[in-house]
Specification:
The protein is mainly beta. It has ten helices and 38 strands.
Length: 618
């Protein structure tokens, strides 16, 4: 996944290779910064991007939603460890203290103060995995939704839960009849009561949990085990009843390896997508770019042991040196940041890939790939854009030193492909790309393209960014079309669009205009997060924080709420909503559940989980 100039913020906050000592005295270098060393450090490392208003880096206000501990971890063991190679421990601590939220709330202590009085009831999953089924359709039946089109106008906020010390709420929940299972930026994983929001248990992961967990059931059909990964590429299995660890495995085979997409569970195996932060590391001129290899692993659900591993690029080879003398390698990248789709009938899994990080670009970037479920053997590859090599050194405000000669277009398949059986009985794969193109592929003919259609102009963060949805009758496509990509085609089509899945013919479009004139995310009703569909209704959230329900018949708006505000939370944490991105709405048992707040790419930070339900009629 490409992180345009967001990396500049963290690269600016960066630089340290050793654990800071809280009691370390200021060095001569720090003293030389003057009477206000914190502001001097900020001006030297951060202000050019965060105060300019012209990059996609988070604002200083967004950074200040984080705790001091999380900022220090970001600069020492987190995403910016590579970039943080030159600051002293004292400088890191000064900068983190200056930027951190004034009074952080300890997440674990807060959870312990809001525990449920009654024990957790194990029940059957009603929304599971990223796409709610192994075909990634993001469709919810009327029975499991517990509400229909007539209930939508009566939806009101039931309760809100604040994530302490967080600037984003990104982990889409998995939900049973009784519990919401969800991760957080702090790495604390929660089991919350669906009705009240009290905490049944927590589990502390080693790093941020940012994707959707997967639930495995027992013989009685009730939740038994939860599977999820963290930002440091650890994969966990924990008890759904108690949150106790069953096993933990690191899947990292590269220093920059991470997990963006959710693991897919099928027939006793977990299929895990692998991505990386090396796209950020490439920003540094002296970084030897690049050696990460995207791919997918199959691991045993019982043990976490690896069964097979598939790479999207061969072992990168030396290709020369950059202008400052650092070695170059290639091809690299082609990460997988979507949840694999299972085709049990054909014994295959499908997934989409991102761009190459370095030249030469290979034939598996920007592609939909099919693998044998049992062996990981490659069955076919459908690449829609050749020659896409891009990394963080390519941005307007970046160094350019490690930017590949292709310089983009950075048109990943961030959204997972959808497997759908058409009315006539034929299966089709539906794929949406950041280029703004959508495709119908033939799984019986080596992924041959049956139809293609332009749905948006494309861009770094969409066209189609995180996902699409289908109810079998139509394909519902949210389009972000945020500006700034030189490879964009045509006018912006931000909004929601419906297409015939058999032919790609447009059915209707709901264009969402900006709500103010400024070129800011608070103005954009752009749909980057995936939509979710129940019979008659599509739920979708926008980058400006607006959450809406649309009619699946014609796209008319049935209900709308602005989540970009402060909320009173059931756990007493100060919380507000922001951009809705990455995680889509979840509809279960008469509840609409959504995260609000996303601090990347200069979007609107926030830290709240919102649960809506129909108001009781008198």
């Amino acid at each position: 996944m490409s992180l345009p100039t967001f990396l500049v913020f963290l690269a600016a906050l960066s630089a340290c290779g050793q654990e800071p000592n809280p009691d370390a005295p200021h060095t001569e270098e720090v003293a030389a910064l003057g009477e206000n060393p914190a502001e001097a450090l900020y001006q030297e490392h951060c202000a050019a991007c965060h105060d300019s208003g012209q990059t996609e880096a988070p604002t200083k206000a967004a950074i200040r939603n984080a705790t001091m501990q999380s900022l220090v971890e970001t600069m020492t063991t987190g995403v910016m460890q590579q970039q943080a190679a030159n600051m002293s421990p004292a400088e890191i601590r000064i900068l983190a203290d200056y930027l951190a939220i004034p009074s952080g709330v300890d997440a674990q202590a807060n959870a312990e103060a809001h525990m449920c009085e009654d024990p957790l009831k194990l029940s059957k999953p009603l929304w599971n995995r990223w796409g709610n089924n192994r075909k990634n359709q993001r469709f919810q039946t009327l029975a499991n939704a517990g509400l229909g089109i007539v209930d939508v106008p009566d939806l009101e906020l039931k309760w809100a839960f604040g994530f302490p010390g967080s600037a984003r709420a990104r982990s889409q929940p998995a939900v049973t009849e009784d519990a919401i299972y969800i991760g957080s930026q702090s790495g604390l994983f929660y089991a919350l009561n669906l009705e009240s929001g009290c905490v049944h248990w927590t589990f502390q992961a080693d790093a941020e949990v940012r994707h959707a967990p997967t639930i495995a059931t027992g013989d009685d059909g009730r939740a038994k085990t939860l599977f999820f990964g963290d930002f440091d590429a650890n994969l966990y299995a924990v008890s759904a009843r108690t949150g106790k660890l069953i096993w933990k495995r690191t899947l990292k085979d590269h220093a920059a390896g991470t997990m963006t997409g959710s693991p897919t569970l099928h027939d006793g195996r977990l299929y895990v997508p692998m991505s990386s932060t090396e796209v950020i590391n490439a920003y540094l001129p002296d970084y030897e770019c690049c050696t990460f290899r995207g791919g997918v692993l199959a691991v045993e659900a019982k043990s976490g042991n690896t069964i097979w591993r598939y790479y999207t690029v061969e072992q990168p080879q030396p290709t020369g040196e950059n202008s400052v003398g650092a070695r170059r390698f290639g091809p690299s990248g082609a990460p997988v940041w979507n949840s694999p789709t299972v085709d049990d009938e054909r014994g295959l899994i499908y997934f989409g890939t991102g761009e190459n990080y370095s030249s030469p670009a290979n034939d598996k970037s920007d592609a939909i790939i099919a693998l044998d479920l049992n062996t990981g053997q490659e069955k076919w590859v459908t690449q829609t854009i050749a020659g896409d090599a891009w990394n963080g050194a390519c941005g307007r405000f970046s160094t350019q030193v490690n930017c590949p000669e292709e310089d983009g277009p950075d048109f990943d398949f961030g959204a997972p492909p959808i497997l759908l059986k058409l009315a006539g009985g034929k299966d089709i794969l539906l794929a949406g790309q950041k280029s703004g193109m959508i495709y119908g592929l033939d799984p019986d003919d080596g992924g041959a393209i049956l139809w293609e259609r332009r749905a948006g102009m494309g861009g770094f963060n969409g066209g189609v960014h995180w996902g699409m949805a289908t109810d079998g009758t139509a394909l519902y496509v949210g389009i972000a079309d945020t500006p700034g990509n030189k490879f964009a085609t045509g006018p912006s089509r931000q909004g929601l669009h419906a297409y015939d899945p058999a032919t790609g013919e447009p059915l209707w479009s709901r264009y969402e205009p900006n709500v103010c004139e400024e070129n800011e995310h608070r103005c954009r009703t752009a749909l980057s997060a995936p939509p979710t569909v129940i019979p008659g209704v599509i739920f979708a959230g926008a980058l400006n924080g607006i959450l809406r329900a649309y009619s699946s018949r014609d796209g008319s708006i049935l209900w709308s709420r602005d989540t970009r505000r402060e909320f009173e939370t059931i756990n007493g944490v100060e919380a507000r909503g922001g951009s809705i991105d990455s995680a889509g709405p979840v509809v279960v048992a008469g509840h609409l559940i959504v995260n609000s707040g996303y601090d990347k790419f200069a979007q609107i930070p926030g830290n709240v989980l919102l649960v809506y339900a129909p108001a009781r009629r008198e």
